[in-house]
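Human: I would love a firmer grasp of how sequence relates to backbone shape in proteins. Take your time, and here it is.
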Amino acid sequence: MPHRFPRRAAADVTAAVAAYLGAGSWLACLGSPGVTAGVLAVGAGAAVLVRTAGSILLREPRVCTPADRVTLVRAVLVACCAALTVAGILGRQPPAAVLVFLGAAAFALDALDGPVARRTGTASAAGARLDTETDAALTLVLSCAAAVSTGAWVLLIGLMYYAFAVAGRFRPGLQKTLPPSPLRKAIGALQPFALLLALTPGVPSAAGTTALLVALALLLFSFGRDTAALERLHRSGPVAAATPGTFNS
């Protein structure tokens, strides 16, 4: 592996962190009622980005592929959404139009990193996990934003992936992988779409709530179906481990 790749990975991560600190600090100021709230908002976004940056920098070998750079851009956008959301929770409502724009950009870019990885011959399990974790972070952040006006039950959408991952710590069978499923992929994509719809200014609250209820029902169905399938696989023999749940493609 050429020695330039570790340096390039560090440079890419540094650029992403610098971009977030600039944009995130400005965005946090839009909704924060004070310095403390602003710092907490920026810190929330930083937590999202640190997870992505750490995944890249702790790899062996430490590389950042073209698809990883797309995911890094997505992570910066998700981090900015987190800063806006926390600022809105601690102070005023977050600037909905800005939040939806940034969230929609992060959502749209999800369709790009996979093709880039395949076209450049750099697809990997590590890259797929990073993409899945970024999807989950976006869904969690948007669910926190939507919960402010719709209700705490919306948090179930964002927490489902993490609850499944925690359950896998106690039930090893849930850490196994399932064959790719177009239905699972479609249901996973529906979650951020429904959240963005509910957050979009001008959308009737009844329509947004209905979309979220449908998304949550399908998510519960998908995770329930996957759990049952994973238990059957666990009983039938060992299967390779992978990132769990509905966000798998």
Residues 239-245 have pLDDT under 50 and may be disordered. The radius of gyration is 18 Å. The chain has one domain: 4-236.
